[in-house]
Structure formats: structure tokens, C-alpha cells
Amino acid sequence: MHTSFVLANIINWGWLSIGPPYIYININPVIVQIGPVALRWYGLMYVVGIVIGLWAIRHYTERKGLTQNIVYRIFWWCLVAGLIGGRLYFVVQQPNFFSYYLIQPQHILATWEGGMAFFGAIFLVIPTIFWRARVERINPLVAIDAGVLFAIVGQIFGRIGNLINGDIIGYRSTLPWSTVYQNPNSFACLNPAANTCNVPVQPAAGYELLSNIAVMVLMFYLAYRVRRPGVLMLIYLYAYVITQFLLFFVRDNVVVTFLGLNWGLKQAQWTSLVVFIILLPITYLVFRYSKPVPKGAVAATYGIPQKPKPEVEEHKEEDGENQPADGKDEAGTNDRQEMPRETHEKIEG
């Protein structure tokens, strides 16, 4: 108990205090509001995550032969796909989908209000990367590997946004690291029926943050050692479905049935099981058809047919090789010299 009091005296910043006996968060999710426009911590964390994520994968993409132009051309498509997929998958799972979101559709894409289901982003972004990689004539698995490295970095900042928002709530708990949300604008306090305001709960968002950090360290360690395209994608997806399945046992979400099965699981856990099963044949295909890139080869284009050069350019190159350095036509200048003597006499005559 004495230690808890010492910590409380050390960390007591008003917006965050530790013990005794819990962790208290008193942060307004809205940073500043001007009329109807509000800048929220959740949205700001998304921007920070995107910037840091692009910076973090820069050296990896350069080593794999992905230019910054290609990265950004693919990124903008993925950004739109990720926001739409993540938000829509979150919205359709909500119990008030018909009574709230369909009646007020302006809230469906209001990502700044909080609430993103990352599985939805995965379902839409991976096909988008595959499509754009084919357009760019690069190996789709190399591009997806870079994409999941970006994702794991960005997720960390998203979880910080979740912690501030109070939109990922665990079950009630008496553990010393339980979280208590105190700000009346926190998502934990906006729904009185949930009774999660000023109540100690499992820090589910904190658990997810720690798992993201652990997976990120593993992936960046392997990124410099694995030469088979697609392996990083598999590690990320397996890690995500396993951690989601386990962590949702402490999240206070609605238990749902699936195909008539009532196993006491939540929606994300059912999704994790389905994705895990789908990953098994994908794993076989990756190890069957994706070959390790030889040292010295460019991973992004290795084994991918490239556009042939236009014929006009090829002819120009050939003409340039055949043309003498002084630009003169040797054959033309020597024609007269090589004429027989009789021909010279006739011409002169």
C-alpha cells in the first residue's frame, strides 16, 4: 500500500494519476472545438500513426525496390479503403445499427467519433494492395509485407487514441492496474446504461497496445532476415487473429451466436476463427509458390514481367549505336572514293 501512495504522489497530473488503487484517466477526447468542427485525440492519433508508419517502413521499401512514388501511389488507395472498411465493419456490428446509424447516416463514416473495426480495414486493404501492385508491375506479396509493417506501427497510435477515448472497455475489475475513466465526455461515460463511468475496468486498450508493440518488435526483427515475400503478412495476420481472440475475453462486448453456435464468443472472436481457418490454405500457397528472393535481386520486381520498352525508343537506341561519333555517314562519304576508275571518268566526262 505504501508503494501505491508513493506512485500516486509521483504521477498525479490531473489528466492521469496512478493509484491508489487504480489508474485514473481524465482526458477530454475533444482537443478543441470550433462550432460543429471538433479536433479529437482519436483523429490526431490516426494522423500521427500514418506519418510515423510511413517513416518507419521507408528503409524497408527502399531495400525491396519500392520507390517512394510507388509507395505513395498505393498508400492513398489503401488509406481510403482502410477508413471505409474499418468503419463499415464496426458500424454493422453495433446493436444500434438500425436505430442510430441508418436513421442518422452522417455518423456512419464519422471516424473521428471513434469506433473502427480493424478486421474491416484488413478485408478491404489487402485486396486493394494486391490490385495496385499488379498495376505497378511489382510483386503483390512484397507490397503487402510493407503494408503490414506500416499497419502494426500505425495501430500502436490508434490504441493510444482508444485509451484516451475510452471506447475499448474491459470487464469490471479490482486489479491494481484497472482503468477508471472520469471525464464526462469519455465514451465510457457517454452511455449511462453501461455504467462504466468512474468504475474500474480491465484496460483492454492497454492490453492491445502492449500486444501491438510486441508484434511490431518481432516483425521488424524478421523484416531484415526473411527473404520469402508473404511471410511478414502471415506473421501479422496470425498474430492479429490470435491476440484478438484472446484479448476479447476481457473486453465487455456483446456475446453473439454464429451459424447457430453459442460458444460465448464475441463478434471479433468469431471473425478471428474464420480468418484463422482461411489463413491455413493461404499459408500453403505462400510457401508453395512464393520463392525466396536471391541476394542481390530486386524483391519488388523479381519474377514479375515488366513492360517492354516502346519500339520507337528501341529504334532510337539502335540508331545511336550505329551512328559514328562525328555524326557522318561513313558509307556516304566513301561512295565516291570506292567507285571504279571507269565510273569516275564517265562522270567527269
Descriptive overview:
With 349 residues, the protein is mainly alpha-helical. It folds into two domains: 27-289, no CATH class; 311-348, no CATH class. Helix content is 57%, strand content 8%. It is built from 14 helices and seven strands. The chain has helices at residues 2-10, 41-56, 58-63, 68-93, 97-101, 118-136, 140-165, 187-190, 204-223, 231-247, 267-289, 311-322, 330-338, 341-348; strands at 16-18, 23-25, 30-34, 37-40, 179-181, 255-258, 261-266. Strands 1-2-5 form a three-stranded mixed β-sheet. β1 and β2 form a beta hairpin. The N and C termini lie far apart (124 Å).
Name the helix and strand elements from N-terminus to C-terminus, one letter apiece. Answer: HEEEEHHHHHHEHHHEEHHHH
Strand order, biggest sheet?
Answer: 1-2-5
Beta content comes to: 5-15%
Number of domains: 2
* Cα-to-Cα separation, first versus last residue: 124 Å
Helix content range: 55-70%
Radius of gyration based on Cα positions:
30 Å
What is the number of strand segments? 7
Number of helices: 14
**Shape by Cα distribution:** globular
Class inferred from helices and paired strands: mainly alpha
Q: Spans of 5+ residues with little confidence (pLDDT < 50)?
A: 1-8, 327-349
Mean pLDDT: 84
> Mind summarizing the main beta sheet?
3 strands, mixed
